[in-house]
Model the fold of this input.
Amino acid sequence: MTETLYSLNCYITEFEATVTKITDNKFVVLDRTAFYPESGGQPNDMGKLIRKSERAEFGVSYVDKFDGYIGHEVVYPDGNVSMRLKAGDNVKGIIDRDRRYMHMRMHTATHVIANVIEKEAGAQITGNQLGIDQSRVDFQP
Done:
């Protein structure tokens, strides 16, 4: 199981971890992560992983949960196989702070809106989709 640092402190934007495995030849699984995976209508964090040895940098384009583990889809420079991360590599994770904070603000706003709509109209929230520029909230009367 991946230790979820984001659930301990949502303001963590840098952390150190060890690669435990690679799945589907593209998802990097870490022993711990601060990257929030796509979940409940909230988009995943993006950012980068930096391999401590050789100072290689890998963009993180997608994060999701798979069987209790969190997989980080990484972008490899020039498709170079020799540059790929492997189990045992030590990495530093850096999260796109502006993206994270915008999603946090949108998340809070949807809770406020849902509370007002429930109190004023008696409607319950049935779903949502958060974004950077706009979000959607669904209600059921």
